[in-house]
Design goal:
Mean pLDDT: 90
Number of strands: 8
Structural class: alpha+beta
Helix content: 25-40%
Largest sheet: 4 strands, antiparallel
Order of helices and strands: HHEHEHEEHHEHEEHEHH
Distance between the termini: 19 Å
Length: 255
């Protein structure tokens, strides 16, 4: 049996969500239009390939927090957090303590990035710098946890959150100190909308829909990961998993 696979990326909803938030009229309009476009797309596949002869899975790369104004209007906790201001404050704090300017290059994606070359050239104690930053951050409003990722196991952070921090860390690309904000707090990229990048369920809980070839009606409420998709596709096709696959087969799909 010849089964066709097609990957499409839908970015418009992400952009609109950043600008307006998930409860906005603009997002509602976006999804109504997307629903019509998907219906036309599936109708085209039915005509060209045939019903039941193609497999579709639909998911997302992340969720999103509510807009800050929406949360305040509904008496929910949440506030803007300004990474640029924190970076400037940290540099002033570290200059007073270590007498060297601009030790923090940036605070981005809730991670503190240091000027490693400067720290090495000045022969500064990097561990002392990171400890000072972690101690400073933990006393700031809106921050639940801060940790030096090289010794993440030393911190009293819930195991589930700690595991997610470790899974998202890669030395050559990540900042050396990770920041975990309070629920509902996020970096103020767009004051009129929302953003993402946190561990919270509103940000990490996303849909996963399967439709078409060899898919039977059903649902599951158990925890499933994006990494399970490739393993499940391989099982459906009776082929070996990709060599980088770390997921597990979604048994409800293949039964």
């Amino acid at each position: 049996m010849a089964t066709d696979f097609l990957t499409i990326n839908i970015a418009s909803t992400d952009y609109v969500g950043h600008q307006f938030g998930p409860n906005s009229i603009e997002i509602e309009d976006t999804y109504l239009r997307l629903d019509k476009e998907l219906a036309d797309f599936f109708q085209g596949l039915d005509t060209k390939i045939g019903k039941g002869q193609y497999l579709v899975f639909l998911t997302a790369d992340h969720g999103a927090a509510h807009n800050i104004d929406f949360m305040k209007n509904h008496e929910l906790p949440g506030e803007f957090w300004f990474a640029g201001r924190i970076a400037d404050t940290l540099n002033k704090f570290l200059f007073e303590k270590f007498h060297t300017s601009a030790l923090v290059r940036s605070v981005m994606n809730y991670q503190v990035n240091f000027d490693l070359n400067k720290i090495m050239d000045k022969n500064l104690d990097f561990n002392a710098i990171k400890n000072a930053v972690v101690d400073f951050l933990q006393r700031q409003p809106g921050i639940s946890f801060a940790a030096d990722m090289s010794v993440i196991g030393r911190y009293p952070i819930p195991k589930r959150i700690q595991e997610m921090m470790i899974n998202g860390y890669y030395f050559k690309r990540s900042g050396q100190v990770q920041i975990i904000l309070n629920a509902g707090w996020f970096d103020a990229y767009f004051k009129t909308g929302t953003t993402h990048g946190t561990w919270n369920p509103y940000d990490t809980h996303i849909p996963l829909l399967w439709y078409g070839w060899n898919i039977h009606p059903g649902k599951s409420n158990r925890e499933i990961y994006m990494t399970d998709i490739s393993a499940t596709l391989a099982a459906l096709l009776h082929i070996q998993m990709p060599n980088g696959c770390i997921g597990h087969v979604i048994e409800e799909i293949v039964k």
